[in-house]
Write a structure and sequence with these properties.
Blueprint lengths: L5 E6 L8 H7 L3 E5 L8 H14 L2 E6 L10 H7 L8 H17 L4 E4 L11 H19 L3 E5 L5 H11 L4 E5 L1 H6 L5 H8 L3 E6 L1 E3 L10 E3 L8 H10 L6 E3 L7 H23 L1
Parallel strand pairs: 1-2, 1-10, 2-3, 3-4, 4-5, 5-6, 6-7, 7-10
Antiparallel strand pairs: 8-9
This protein binds magnesium ion (MG).
Length: 281
Amino acid sequence: MDKYPIGVFASIGAGLGVRLEVVEELGIHSVQLCCPHKEDRTEENAREFIQKLEKIGVKISVVFCDFKGESYATIQKTKETIGLVPPTLRNERKQEIREIADFAKVLGCDRIGIHIGFIPHETDSDDYRDLVASLQELADYLKAQGQAFHLETGQEKADGLLQFLTDVGRDNVFINFDPANMILYGSGEPIPALKKLGKYVRSCHCKDAKWSDQPGETWGAEVPFGTGDVNAKLFLETLKEIGYEGPLTIEREIPAEPERQKAEISQAMELIESLKKEIWG
Ligand code: MG
């Protein structure tokens, strides 16, 4: 794959991300795929989907986990429902991640992305230790089938995430860096965080946001890439600085407004193309 292809967050059928028809219309050739739920994760669906992708020349860079019952309605709801952190859901979601990894394998994708949720800060607690052990177990499962785990940024400050990655200690656990999430969750300035986490960053989201007036308490606002507090140019320059060469995957989560979503992704593509020329020549 060429360096820095423009990508987009997409889904099969319903779910976060744009539909494949939109990917085709926009002329994008790289997607991160929001994984369908259990009933649609059949081998037959996977094969059909691969055919569609081949026809329009699209490659999947990352398959993202998406669990039933997750809610991003408020920061508090996110704490309660997202990823592997809710203890009562941990075991069933671990099993589901193995199934998603198997589905991704059929799709020919060796990277699984996930929001694991708000990692407990008490690193000497049983809950933290169990979460570390869960990640180790899953990383080993993925490793056995030649896959890596990409943890999405947002819920943690860079230092907390670094500590967690060190404690997990597996060489196939990396980061999907989303600069807007750092702002939306109030987890710190994205550019210094990107520099700090640099060696782990293997995929990213080109997404933008404006800070909340109560960071960490209420959501910031997601806005089109290049119009928020991320500083799109500095973000791409910093990706270059850390030696990143993967896809630049645009994420714009306004599924209720598909026309506006498509238009804003198209504008983001233009912006990224011009910044790429400026930065990489
Ligand atoms: Mg994201």
